[in-house]
Write a structure and sequence with these properties.
With 171 residues, this protein is an alpha/beta fold. It has a single domain, classed as Glutaredoxin, CATH 3.40.30.10.
């Protein structure tokens, strides 16, 4: 099989896998009130924080080709700096190629955790609706807020309000 045809077939298979995750039954997707998944068995590339217990977490799904994702990174970096160790941001990259993620991160350096879901296992379990999708999780590991997309200052303001409300409840 020639290389270009092989790449084309692989891209169709990858797209079909992403589409299958996107059209999962609504009850299969992570939603407000659900427990955040345990990532230990999902083969993420990169180092996750040792413990999330008692922390407010933003679990953000993003891709290098996503313009709203690029706009969200500075806002999330500011949140990480503002709240320090009371907030954990985990940005889960869904790019097929690690090189695309690496190139993005050279332009957008951040102080929060970035991992890659190269095998699409987290995407299959969580089923984010769009890029970016952010889940804000309380100190007990429950999803309390969900954001599909990033809408600039409006989303930033919502993040602050939601994080602060959860921090008040976290010992």
């Amino acid at each position: 099989m020639n290389t270009s045809r092989h790449k084309f077939i692989l891209s169709i298979i990858t797209a079909a896998g992403l589409l299958a995750a996107a059209v999962r039954p609504a009850d299969a997707a992570l939603k407000v009130g659900d427990a955040m998944p345990d990532f230990a068995h999902l083969e993420l590339e990169g180092k996750l924080p040792d413990s999330l217990k008692g922390k407010v977490v933003i679990l953000d799904f993003w891709a290098s080709w996503c313009l709203p994702c690029a706009a969200s990174f500075p806002a999330m970096d500011q949140l990480q700096k503002k709240y320090g160790d009371r907030l954990v941001i985990i940005a889960v990259n869904v790019d097929e190629k690690k090189a695309n993620m690496d190139a993005f991160l050279k332009k957008h350096t951040v102080a929060f955790t970035v991992v890659r879901d190269g095998k699409q296992k987290v995407v299959a379990e969580v089923a984010p609706e769009t890029m970016p999708t952010s889940f804000i999780v309380d100190g007990e590991g429950k999803v309390r807020y969900l954001h599909n997309g990033f809408h600039g200052a409006e989303t930033e303001k919502q993040y602050v309000t939601e994080i602060e409300s959860l921090l008040k409840r976290t010992p």
